[in-house]
Amino acid sequence: MAGVRLVNVSKTYEGGVSAARDINLTVEDKEFLVLVGPSGCGKTTVLRMIAGLEEITGGELYIGDQLMNDVAPKDRDIAMVFQNYALYPHMTVYDNMAFGLKLRKYSKEEIRERVTEAAEILGIKEYLDRKPKALSGGQRQRVALGRAIVRKPKVFLFDEPLSNLDAKMRVQMRAEISKLHARLDATMIYVTHDQVEGMTMGDRIVVMKSGVIQQVGSPLELYNKPANRFVAGFIGTPAMNFFDGRIVKGERLYFEEKGGGLRFEVPAEYEKKIGGIIGKEIFLGIRPEHIVLAQTKSGEFDASRKLKVEISEPMGNEVFLYFQSGSGQIVSRVTTSVDPRPGTELEMYFDTKRAHFFSKENEETIAVS
Amino acid sequence: MAFNRNKMTQPQERKTRFFDSESLSPNTFAYILMIPAAIVMFGVVVYPFFYNVVLSFSNMSLRHFRDWHLIGFRQYIEVFRGQVFYTVFLKTLVWTFVNIFFHVTIGVSLALVLNRKLFGKAALRTLLILPWAIPQVIVALTWRSMFNYEYGAINLFIARYLQMAPVEWLGKPLEAFSACIITNIWLGFPFMMTIALGGLQSIPQELYEAADIDGASAWQKFWSVTYPLLKPVMIPAITLGIIWTFNNVNIIWLVSNGGEPSDQTHILVSYVYKAAFNLYRYGYAAALSMVIFAILLIFSLVFLKRTKASEAAY
């Protein structure tokens, strides 16, 4: 087993398009690291550079202590699971899993032993004689996992392995991959655009945007202390609410939404941190679960507002309520079983103690709770 | 319910129409639409085929053109009794095999080259498909003049650049047959190349990447990814190619000028053509063409079945 280290790694395509810039990242041995970001953010490029399928145009890549920049994929001791499974369609499940071992000249007994063991772990033993086209999507992805497991590589790489599965199968496979990680005790690097996968599976998450790492941290760190507005908006569903406005000084400090919308008192604990930006434009962020019905919560100062419900989405255990404000739509996540008609006025409490303040210039976090 | 309303509100108009498609069952209407095509197919395929079957059991020839009658299997016996059939059949097999072998190897090799990133790929691809776009007659006559002993480009090339004696391409049996084969190879590889290129482009790139990580060399990738996935695409194309080449009368006839020298360059179809339209032995030619038909039919059925060509790969 081994860790992976990227030092100032960059990828620039011919014609100057930059897919990844100055990636500095250390993946610890036996860690489950998730790379997330919207499409085109460079997360797959980073993974493919680690795999050796994409040339590194700048910086250094180490697997263990060995510099891997110019090492062929087959000699990097990695295994990769692809989004479209990439199973050889003319080979049986057994041969698919055995192919890499055969090429590496393992003995027949050893191959059989390893394939059978992997098939048992993944519950695909009865399909070993079948061709991939006779399998469902979930089974195919298990075979692809099996092909990776049998090699016992130092590092497992996953490129959006669950994207082609239906929602139910995705949840199931998510748990299975996590279990597999615990069982194999291997270093795994997992790329996904689905932040829920990242939150549920990763020891640590790397959020990327436009080829640049935005933040690296544990799931809760990213959720509670996002480094900038992008991370705050990307992690969590429904996404965080952002209010466009400025800090003004009256008796105390206030946040005033643009166009005369909402106006909040800034809680005392923030005053020191944001005292220096009075008058400047900022974004205020509040997560949906921190905007609740006023009767369920009350603070020491007035942060309740009457708002008209636009849409209400009952989810069963909770309800998403959508309102209109000066700078956009507000989403609230309410756990009680209300189901108001559109147009109903509700008094909503904004838990400003849990608010996030972001600079408007560079969107960096100024202050969090 | 559109039918009913139409009938109720427009009863007058319905009577005056030639026929009303709505009053027919959907199937009947479909059959009516098919009639013109069926008539044409009957006229150019079904009728000639059965007429040919009848002729093959007859003594029709220039001498018995109007007074022909059925003579049973005599023409078939004549076909199988003559030595010519076997030598020509052998030549046909050589002709077909050599042609297809080069069509496929040249076609697939070029497709592999064209499937890579390559400067001027579009221009090159157009250039390579060109032989296919030129009418066969023009190709055959052009190559025939290129094979000319004294003035042909090929002999000029051989003499000037290879410093070798010129070859009597069209005057000797083996050389003339080779000339026909060379012409047909030039003519036939673009088809295989186009099909192979389509097949190659449909192989997902991920499979090669998976093979890279599995540790396959370029050669191993070809044999364990490209070859098995190209096969289902190529088998039907090869079957077609074999049938077309087996039946290709144009090139043999035009390049060798009707089987010259002294009927030594015939394949079965050119021999049939000669029997029917130069020697006017209609009954004999019909019997021989039935034999060719049977050979190709059996070949196609066996070949397609054994190679499982109709099975989808993915």
Describe the structure.
- The complex is a heterodimer of chains A (369) and B (314).
- Chain A has 369 residues and is of the alpha+beta class.
- Helix content of chain A is 25%, strand content 33%.
- Chain A is built from nine helices and 21 strands.
- Chain A has helices at residues 43-51, 93-103, 108-122, 137-150, 167-184, 195-201, 219-224, 229-234, 268-274; strands at 4-12, 18-27, 32-36, 58-63, 66-67, 78-81, 155-159, 187-192, 204-209, 212-217, 241-249, 253-257, 263-265, 281-286, 291-293, 304-314, 319-325, 328-334, 345-350, 356-359, 365-367.
- In chain A, α2 crosses α3 and α2 runs parallel beside α4.
- Chain A starts with a strand and ends with a strand.
- The model of chain A has no long low-confidence stretch (mean pLDDT 89).
- Chain B is 73% helix and 0% strand.
- With 314 residues, chain B is mostly helical.
- Chain B has a single domain (74-306), classed as MetI-like fold.
- Chain B is built from 14 helices and no strands.
- The chains are: A alpha+beta (369), B mainly alpha (314).
How much helix is in the residues of chain A? 25-40%
Distance between the termini of chain B: 44 Å
Radius of gyration of chain A: 25 Å
Order of helices and strands of chain A: EEEHEEEHHHEHEHEEHHEEEHEEEEEEEE
Overall morphology of chain A: elongated
What is the C-alpha radius of gyration of chain B, as a whole number of Å? 27 Å
How many strands of chain A? 21
Treating each run of at least 4 consecutive H or I residues as one helix, how many helices of chain A? Answer: 9
